[in-house]
């Protein structure tokens, strides 16, 4: 089970390579929603998402790797590509054909080779394993890896230091790496702060998994504009952490995600991708059930620009 000391060690290890991201506040938004919101700006992180943290931590812990291999719907690919560039290692990333062209291009820009032909959300793990056998590169899983979970937890350490009075923290949940890390930090250091996951209605596997006490796997990739959380299931390592430390999961509609993106753009002037807007969408839809002082993890900003 992931421990606070692993997250603390990750923070020291990755500090030279990642940003301490700012916490933003917006009085207009607070007035509109009747809350005090503290927005953790991971869209301003290296590579445009928190994924640089876990990827960097995992890569720094490898010994004698010939190269790095990642499977990703986008942001983890950029994280691993960035880590490879820092460490001078070649990087292969397996991305679904339908993944965001911008995210593929960004991974290439960091020097990674993108493998996407015939790759779907459903078969990508198998493709990555075959490539691993062929190349001998070290596979860095996007969430089900204690090194990755510890790296993502450093978001929680920073947020707690920047806003030590939060009543609840809202975190997007895909495979659960970010939520595992953040929940581990808050349960250890600020146990009265509730940590809540957020996922789209059509991708409610985390909510169902925690309710049913077993990992519920979706039969196919959910259709949602939040492309970072199209994962089919929680991981075998993230699930037990979330079961013990997460206080619940909220689901949100596609309309609420779009409205949250719009508010982040118009009110706070921040470019946040749909997945990063999930926590604000949860405030829009479940505000009445939530406390007043909230931390929202804006987990990424890598969105396609559509004129
Ligand atoms: C922007 C963004 N937020 C949240 C997540 C979900 O992270 P996790 O899989 O660790 O739950 C992802 C995953 O790709 C992401 O890209």
TrEMBL record:
Residues 16-293 form the Tryptophan synthase beta chain-like PALP domain. CDD domains: Thr-dehyd. It holds the Pfam family PALP. GO terms for molecular function: ATP binding; L-serine ammonia-lyase activity; magnesium ion binding; pyridoxal phosphate binding; serine racemase activity; threonine racemase activity. InterPro entries: Ser/Thr_deHydtase_PyrdxlP-BS, TrpB-like_PALP, TrpB-like_PALP_sf. PROSITE patterns: DEHYDRATASE_SER_THR (PS00165). Keywords: Lyase, Magnesium, Pyridoxal phosphate. One of its GO terms (biological process) is D-serine biosynthetic process. Belongs to the serine/threonine dehydratase family. This is Threonine dehydratase. The lineage of its organism: Bacteria, Thermotogati, Deinococcota, Deinococci, Thermales.
């Amino acid at each position: 089970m992931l421990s606070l000391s692993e997250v603390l060690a990750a923070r020291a290890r990755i500090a030279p390579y990642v940003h301490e991201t700012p916490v933003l506040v917006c009085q207009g938004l607070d007035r509109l929603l009747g809350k005090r919101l503290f927005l953790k700006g991971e869209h301003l992180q290296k590579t445009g998402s928190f994924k640089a943290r876990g990827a960097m931590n995992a890569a720094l812990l490898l010994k004698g790797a010939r190269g790095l291999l990642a499977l990703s719907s986008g942001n983890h690919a950029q994280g691993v590509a960035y880590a490879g560039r820092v460490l001078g290692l070649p990087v292969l990333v397996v991305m679904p054909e339908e993944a965001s062209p911008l995210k593929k291009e960004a991974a290439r820009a960091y020097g990674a080779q993108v493998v996407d032909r015939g790759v779907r959300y459903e078969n990508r793990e198998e493709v990555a394993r075959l490539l691993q056998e062929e190349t001998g590169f070290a596979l860095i899983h996007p969430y089900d890896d204690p090194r990755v979970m510890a790296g993502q937890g450093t978001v929680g350490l920073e947020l707690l230091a920047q806003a030590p009075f939060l009543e609840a923290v809202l975190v997007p949940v895909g495979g659960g790496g970010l939520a595992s890390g953040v929940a581990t930090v808050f349960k250890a250091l600020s146990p009265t702060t509730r940590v809540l996951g957020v996922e789209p209605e059509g991708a409610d596997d985390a909510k169902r998994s925690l309710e049913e006490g077993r990992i519920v796997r979706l039969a196919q990739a959910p259709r949602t504009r939040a492309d970072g959380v199209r994962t089919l299931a929680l991981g075998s390592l993230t699930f037990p952490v979330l079961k013990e430390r997460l206080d619940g999961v909220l689901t949100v509609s596609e309309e609420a995600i779009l409205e949250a993106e719009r508010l982040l753009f118009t009110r706070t002037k921040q470019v946040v991708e749909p997945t990063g807007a999930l926590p604000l969408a949860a405030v829009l839809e479940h505000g009445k059930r939530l406390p007043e002082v909230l931390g929202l993890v804006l987990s990424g900003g890598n969105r396609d620009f559509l004129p």
